[in-house]
Amino acid sequence: MQLSKETKNQKIRELYEDGKRQMELCNACRYCEGFCAVWRAIEWRREFSDNDMKYLANLCHDCRDCYYACPFTTPHEFGINPPKTFAKIREETYVKYAWPSSLAKLMGEKLTGFWIVFIVSILVFVGGAFVKNGISGTFERYTGEGSFYEIIPKGVMISVFTILGLWMVVGWLIGAIRYWRDIRSSKTDKVAWKDIITAIKYAMSLRYLDGGGAGCTYPTEKPAANRRWLHHLVGYGFLLDFASTTLAAFYDHVLHVPAPYPVFHPVVILGTVGGIMMIIGLIGLLYLKTKTDKEVDDEFSVKKGSTFSVALLFVALTGMLVLGFRETVLMGFWLSIHLASVATLFFTAPYSKFAHFVYRFLSLVNYAQEERVERETRVVQKAKQPLVVQKGIKINN
C-alpha cells in the first residue's frame, strides 16, 4: 500500500525520536562502553539531535555485539535494538542526501527502480550489439586486439561510461557534501589531516568489525571473524578490479594497445584475482544474510543490501565469463551483458548501498576528529591538575 507523504514523514519522525530514546537509555546504562566507535561517540554527548542519529547510524558497522550483550532488548519494555534502528536511519540517509531528490526517492524507496534500470541497460547494450552486427554477427568469433570494439564501438563505450562515471561521482559528491554539512553543523573544531589518515586506517582495516578481536556477532550470537574477512575480499577485490580497469585505460589510450590482453598480462591478472575475490566474498556475505537473526534485521535494508550484493556479484561473474568465452562465439553476448550490468551499477550507485561507504567514511573522519579532541582535552586537563608533594617528590593527582 502506498503511504502518503504525511504518513512517511510521521514514520521518519517516530524513527528518530525512538532512536534518541534508545541512545539516552544506552548512555545512562553504558554496559556496552568500549564496544565500538558508536559507544564512545554517545559518551561524548548528553543530548542527541537528528544529525547525531544520522552520524551514529552511519558510524555503526552492524556487528550487533551490543544487541546480544544488552539486557534491555525485547521483550523488556525498553525495547533496545540499535542495529535495527540504525539500519532504518541509514536507508533514510541514502534517500535524503542523494541527488536528484525525485530520482533518489524512486530508486531509494522501491527496489523496482533498480530492476527497471537493469532491464533497460540490457536492452540498450544487447540491442545495440544486434543492431550493429545483426544476431548472426553478434555471435561471430572475434579475436585479437580491439575485438571488443567489433561488438560495441569504442566511441560508444567511452562516451557511455564517461557520462555514467561522472554521474556516479557527482552523485556521491553531492550526497557527501550534504551529509557532511549536517553532521558537522554543531562542530567548531576543524578536521586535521591526521584525522583523515586515522579514518582511512579504520576503514581499510575494518577495525569495528573485529568485535574486540573475537569477531562480530553476525549472523548469530556466536562471535566470528567471517564477515570481516568476506568484506575484505569484496573491498580489496573491487580495488584490484578498479586498478585493472585503470591500467587497461592507460594501455589503450596512452600506449595505444587495445583490449583484450593476453591471459598473463597485468591487466588480466589484476582483474581475475579481483573478480575471484569479489565472487567468494559476495557469495559468503549473501549466505550470511540468510542466517541472520530476524529480530535484529530491518527487512527492507536486508533486501536492498542483498540487491546490491547480487548486482555486484553479477558484474564480477559476467566479467569472468567474458574472460572465459572471449575466444568463442559467445564473447559478444557476455560482453554486452557485462557492460549492461556495469552501467546499471554506475547509474544506481548514488542511491544503492554502494553509497554507504561514502557516508561511513565521513562518519569515521568525524569520529577520528572527536576522538583526537577528546584525547587532547584529557591531556590538557591532566596538565592543569595541582601537584601534590609527598616525601619531597612532586607527583600529579
TrEMBL record:
SUPFAM superfamilies registered for this protein in UniProt: 4Fe-4S ferredoxins, Respiratory nitrate reductase 1 gamma chain
Protein name (record): Tricarballylate utilization 4Fe-4S protein TcuB
The species this protein was found in: Geobacillus genomosp. 3
GO molecular function, one term: metal ion binding
Superkingdom of origin organism: Bacteria
Gene3D superfamilies from the UniProt entry: 3.30.70.20
Stretches that traverse the bilayer: 111-131, 151-177, 233-251, 263-288, 308-325, 331-351
Entry keyword set: Iron, Iron-sulfur, Membrane, Metal-binding, Transmembrane, Transmembrane helix
Record-linked InterPro entries: 4Fe4S_Fe_S_CS, Citrate_utilization_prot_B, NarG-like_sf
Lineage: Bacteria, Bacillati, Bacillota, Bacilli, Bacillales
